[in-house]
Amino acid sequence: MPVKVPSSLPASAILRGENIFVMSDARAESQNIRPLKVLILNLMPNKIETETQLLRLLGNSPLQVDVELLRIHNRPSKHTPCDHMNAFYRDFEEVRNNNYDGLIITGAPLGDLEFEQVQYWSEIQAIIDWSQHHATSVLFLCWAAHAAFYHLYGIKRYLREEKISGVFQHQRVHEHVPLLRGFDDDFWVPHSRYAQVSLDKLKAHPQLNVLAESDQAGAYLVVSNNNRNLFVTGHPEYTRTTLLDEYRRDLASGLTPRVPDNYFPEDDPTRVPHARWHAHGALLVSNWLNYYVYQQTPFDLSDMSGMTPWE
User: Fold this and answer.
1) Phi, psi of 122 (to 5 degrees)
2) Catalytic residue among 51, 134, 142, 246
3) 291/311 Cα distance (integer angstroms)
4) How many H helices and E strands in the chain?
5) Is 192 annotated as a binding residue?
6) Pick from 307, 153, 295, 168: which is nearest to 223 by CA?
7) Range(s) of the chain covered by CATH 3.40.50.880
């Protein structure tokens, strides 16, 4: 949340120089407050697990958030009861004419497919295009981030020789960026994917800014110049056991997966995994809601042209 201080206070200029949001008396008196409307397009097979992970992070904010759930199609889900889908999820045609403060598009287990081979690729493209005019800020997670890099900016991903799975150390590329407010210089993030987008290509693109990266995992946080699109290539929403569940699932299916890196004490998969990313994940989503949604979104969502960039 912003800090309200007199405009003439010396600290005000210092904090603004560090991109910390401070609010003048005049702006505070004229500010209208309402619940934020956030839409989640859930592409993961186990809808309930992913819902819970994301809602846990969204709930770690003093802002009131009204959440709606969106599905990409209405065909029966193999991993989620039909009653749950019909009761809680909406189809795109039901929300097409709505505006939202924020949109989250999750990852999907489609890492080895070309985007054009994805059964619902045309629907994904349509929703990404729609989001650029109907959501104040869009948070793309993992596969969705790669899909958006490709669709919006023409940046292709490539398949790694071996799946990257584990928890990896990352570094901030920029210090005084609102999204990274409160981050340590180094922090840890889970990754689980076969695909990668070239860090050099992302850094060279004139419409994108890389905010955080990893020697092992590459670019992690990337934001568009207009601050509308935030790309997160890892999984800050994962719980302590998510990578463990994936590892056991791969073993059960006859694969020979590597033990996830930096996850089990002494790399022993019989021991309880070490979770060291929960604080970072909560802070990341809280900063996104505050600086890239709440501080930018118009009070009247019917007028997206009323958005003003954060200072």
Assistant:
1) -65, -35
2) 142
3) 9
4) 10, 12
5) yes
6) 153
7) 3-23+31-239+282-306
- Measured distance CA(66)–CA(61) in Å, rounded: 12
Q: Going by DSSP bridges, is the β-strand pair 65-70/135-141 parallel, antiparallel, or unpaired?
A: unpaired
Q: Where are the beta strands (DSSP E) in the chain?
A: 3-4, 22-23, 36-41, 65-70, 89-90, 100-105, 135-141, 157-172, 186-197, 208-214, 218-224, 229-232
Question: Is 161 annotated in the active site?
Answer: no
Beta-bridge partner residues of 190: 167
Residue 93 is a catalytic residue: no
Helices (H), 36-159: 47-58, 82-88, 92-95, 121-134, 143-153
Distances from the Cα of 189 to the Cα of 1, 5, 220, angstroms: 24, 35, 9
Q: Answer yes or no: 237 catalytic.
A: yes
- Whether the CB-CB separation of 310 and 227 falls below 8 Å is answered with yes
What gap in Å lies between CA 221 and CA 83, rounded to an integer? 36
Closest C-alpha to 178, from 142, 139, 227, 138: 227
Give me 11's structure tokens.
Answer: 């600290």
Judge whether 249 is annotated as a binding position.
yes
Structural class in CATH, domain 3-23+31-239+282-306: alpha beta
201 annotated among ligand-binding-site residues? no
Per-residue pLDDT of the chain (311 residues; tens, 9 = 90+): 455 545 655 555 666 666 655 556 555 555 567 889 999 999 999 998 999 999 999 888 888 888 999 999 888 888 888 988 898 899 999 999 999 999 999 999 887 889 999 999 999 999 999 999 999 999 999 999 999 999 999 999 999 888 999 999 999 998 889 999 999 999 999 999 999 999 999 999 999 999 999 999 999 999 999 999 999 999 999 999 999 999 999 999 998 999 999 999 999 999 999 999 999 999 999 999 999 998 888 888 877 754 544 43
